[in-house]
């Protein structure tokens, strides 16, 4: 197993499902809270971490939004993003596609410009100083209204060139894709690509909805895909990727045990499935921890692990030439680690 851990650690990978607000480690949260003079409900890093026990998605979301309340200035968003990029380098992530939730900040009076400026400045430094390429995905909060999503879309337009895709996250139950059909259509008119969380806590119908109504290029999570044979067959035929997040699924009780995770069955079926960390500060691990946990729980072979890394580049929004470059690097890695 030690051999496999080293292999995973050295493996070059892309991360495609990462909420920057979900990489907010308690230590940084307390530092920023102090410098911004904002009280937190918890008295220490330890007591905050001790509260990270969830029985469903909503339990986590309540803490996640509370945590964002200390982020006020451009530098706060820079520090948040930079800390993730340092972790990304340690995890051998060479390309990352980062989601951010502008409404979690603009609803508190922080400007869209402050949020995106801090994140983008860190991403630029990440490219220049750490050699990590990146794209940004702007997610709409699905528990909020269609009108609020439209307002956010309009606010993003001065920064159109900084954002590759729109996404859809937050509480899946009671907020199906149809609610955002018109916003996504408008976003696609503006040239944004689209992704959406679907089939995390919701049924396969939400995955159909994300595909047919929102016209997404990939599905975030997609755990319930295998409950519908026609859907699974369509996903295999189209090679529409799923960005699966094993430790998130375990901590949010989407799966009761990692040995029951559908990832292996998805790989066996030929789905373009990828492994990601979702909200690593809350779910007990960054990308390597996710790879290691599923490799152990599902007895994945080295070839299957390589396939997951390959899928991460194939499913990315990289240009064809960059994708080819990374696939070459991965191939060389494979040959020298047989
Ligand atoms: N926002 C951050 N993480 C999320 C998740 N796993 N599902 C839905 N919304 C989220
Ligand atoms: Zn997510």
Textual characterization of the structure:
- 51% of the residues lie in helices and 13% in strands.
- The protein is an alpha/beta fold and 338 residues long.
- It has one domain: TIM Barrel (Alpha-Beta Barrel), CATH 3.20.20.140.
- Helix 1 packs antiparallel against helix 15.
- The two termini are 15 Å apart.
- Adenine (ADE) binds next to helix 4.
Instruction: List the ligand species.
Output: adenine, zinc ion
Strand proportion: 5-15%
How many domains? The number is: 1
CATH class category = Alpha Beta
Order of helices and strands: HEHHHHEHHEHEHEHEHEHHEHHHH
Instruction: Give the proportion of residues in helices.
Output: 40-55%
Using only C-alpha atoms, the radius of gyration works out to 19 Å
Alpha-beta classification: alpha/beta
Low-confidence stretches: none
The CATH superfamily bears the name Metal-dependent hydrolases
* Major sheet characteristics: 8 strands, parallel
Give the assembly state of these chains: single chain
The overall strand count is 8
N-to-C span: 15 Å
What name is given to the CATH topology?
A: TIM Barrel
Strand order, sheet with most strands: 1-2-3-4-5-6-7-8
Shape: globular
Topology:
Layout: H1 2-10, E1 13-19, H2 26-35, H3 45-50, H4 57-68, H5 74-90, E2 93-100, H6 103-106, H7 112-130, E3 133-141, H8 146-156, E4 165-169, H9 181-189, E5 193-198, H10 204-212, E6 218-221, H11 229-238, E7 242-244, H12 246-251, H13 263-269, E8 273-275, H14 280-283, H15 287-297, H16 302-314, H17 320-336
Parallel strand pairs: 1-2, 2-3, 3-4, 4-5, 5-6, 6-7, 7-8
Helix pairs in contact: 1-15, 5-7, 16-17
Bound molecules: adenine (ADE) and zinc ion.
The site of zinc ion (ZN) has 6 residues, from strand 1.
């Amino acid at each position: 197993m030690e051999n496999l851990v080293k292999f995973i650690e050295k493996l070059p990978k892309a991360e495609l499902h990462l909420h920057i607000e979900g990489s907010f480690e308690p230590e940084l949260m307390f530092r920023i809270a102090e410098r911004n003079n904002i009280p937190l409900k918890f008295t220490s890093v330890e007591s905050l971490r001790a509260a990270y026990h969830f029985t469903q998605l909503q339990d986590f979301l309540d803490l996640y939004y509370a945590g964002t309340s200390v982020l006020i200035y451009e530098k706060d968003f820079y520090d948040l993003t930079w800390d993730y990029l340092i972790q990304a380098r340690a995890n051998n992530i060479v390309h990352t596609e980062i989601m951010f939730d502008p409404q979690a900040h603009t609803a508190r009076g922080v400007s869209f410009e402050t949020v995106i400026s801090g994140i983008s400045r860190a991403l630029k430094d990440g490219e220049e100083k750490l050699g990590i390429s990146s794209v940004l995905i702007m997610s709409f909060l699905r528990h909020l209204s269609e009108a609020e999503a439209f307002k956010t879309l309009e606010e993003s337009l001065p920064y159109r060139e900084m954002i590759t895709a729109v996404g859809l996250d937050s509480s899946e139950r009671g907020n199906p894709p149809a609610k955002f059909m018109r916003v996504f259509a408008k976003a696609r008119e503006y040239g944004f690509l689209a992704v959406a969380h679907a089939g995390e806590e919701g049924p396969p119908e939400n995955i159909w909805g994300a595909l047919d109504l929102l016209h997404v290029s990939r599905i975030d999570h997609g755990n319930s895909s295998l409950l519908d044979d026609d859907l699974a067959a369509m996903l295999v035929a189209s090679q529409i990727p799923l960005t699966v997040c094993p430790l998130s699924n375990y901590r949010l009780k989407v799966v009761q045990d990692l040995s029951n995770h559908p990832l292996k069955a998805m790989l066996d079926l030929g789905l373009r499935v990828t492994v990601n960390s979702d909200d690593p500060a809350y779910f007990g691990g960054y990308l390597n921890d996710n790879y290691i946990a599923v490799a152990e729980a599902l007895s994945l072979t080295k070839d299957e692990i390589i396939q997951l890394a390959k899928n991460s580049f194939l499913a990315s929004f990289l240009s064809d030439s960059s994708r080819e470059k990374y696939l070459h690097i991965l191939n060389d890695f494979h040959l020298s680690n047989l």
